[in-house]
Write a structure and sequence with these properties.
alpha/beta, Rossmann fold, 7-stranded mixed sheet, 5 helices, 42% helix, elongated, binds S-adenosylmethionine
Amino acid sequence: MLIVFAIFMGILFVLISLSLVWIIIGLIATILIRVPYVNTPRGYCEKILDKVDFLGLTVYDLGCGDAHFLKRCVQKGAKKCVGYELSPMAYLTASIKTLMKPIKIRFGDFFKADISEADVVYIYLVKTVLAKLSPKLKSEAKAGCIIITVGSSLSDWTPEKIISLNGDYSAYVYKK
Ligand SMILES: C[S@@+](CC[C@H](N)C(=O)[O-])C[C@H]1O[C@@H](n2cnc3c(N)ncnc32)[C@H](O)[C@@H]1O
């Protein structure tokens, strides 16, 4: 009986320790990356998926979180998806959730990503980071690439379409 109790307590200790390590890594990553790991709300994803045709396209999500937007893109007919993620927690979650799917999750900084093959670049980031990404999109995205930003617009670009998500909160669709 005592042995069973000791094993139970041992397993509990390991699980609690792992959870704490997971939470601490997540907090450190969020502080270092300075962009919170917040997914595009599902309702917003559906509104975007309804208004943009992803059929046969290669979609990149810069800062893909748990990759749920990319998963929906595949369900809507996207040919290939690539997500970049710098947070270890989000990267692991995304990698597990996209096993056996035509989605590649890359652990790394999207500022260093090769986005030249993307037909669509999807971005849900804070405005300051978006502004820093703008020159990369201008110089590296291919002609005709569709760029979708959620919540914030690219100040020096003119959107082709604005999708209302919730009141004044919108997604902006650009074509390079
Ligand atoms: C607001 S979340 C968006 C998640 C996902 N794109 C979605 O819409 O559901 C932004 C994500 O970008 C990641 N991120 C921020 N800066 C990054 C960088 N330089 N390289 C890769 N990922 C980054 C964060 O870790 C976070 O998971």
